[in-house]
Amino acid sequence: LRSAGSRSALPRWLYAASPWVLAVLLGALTAATGAYIALNCDFLNDLRFGRCRGLFLTDRNHCCGGSDNIDRATERCKTPSLGGAGSPALSAGGEVPETPFSGAEWVPWEEVFPFPFAMYVSTCVVWSGLAAFLVFNYAPPAKGSGIPDVKAAVSGYFVDSRFS
Question: pLDDT tens digits, residue range 66-117?
Fold first, then answer.
């Protein structure tokens, strides 16, 4: 990076710190990518069953304020009770206080479409078709499990157009 006779424009400590800065940056980007994937997987998984009215791009757990607040029999959010352990404290006017989830409501597809199973199948077909299209057009080596390719690479065999 630096020749013997020239002066560097950057301080010496910056050259020494650059691998650490890049490692921290790579770790932060990896964590952000993982969080993005996790949130979108939850949202797209619950999109097959309904949507959250009041909160954009939100899965059922976040829409209802946690998995304890979901009524599994009706597939809707539970209304908060006004007594017992874990219930919200009443405000001075005797009302349930506002929370970030107060305006949110989980709406199952049964209430929106006459045939909710058609909505379930159509969302599954759309996402599966998109995945197949992307693999076929942009990453043909990604089709299949990839186990034979990894075994061949570990064994020392050169497999053309793999892992690229």
Answer: 888 888 888 888 876 555 555 555 455 555 555 555 678 888 888 888 888 8
pTM of the shown model: 0.55
According to DSSP H, which parts of 47-115 are helical? 60-64
Residue 120 and residue 112 in contact, taking contact as beta carbons nearer than 8 Å: no
d(CA 5, CA 117): 74
Distance CA 111, CA 126 (A): 21
Cα 138 to Cα 108: distance, rounded to the nearest angstrom: 35
Question: 3-state DSSP call for residue 9?
Answer: coil
Residue 56, classed as helix, strand or coil, is coil
> How many CB atoms are located within 10 Å of the residue 101 CB?
19
Q: CA-to-CA distance for 155 and 133, rounded, in angstroms?
A: 31
Number of neighbours of residue 118 by Cβ within 10 angstroms: 11
Q: What is the pLDDT of residues 58-73, one digit of tens each?
A: 888 888 888 888 888 8
Per-residue model confidence (pLDDT) at position 72: 82
The separation between CA 35 and the C-alpha centre of its own chain, rounded to angstroms, equals 6
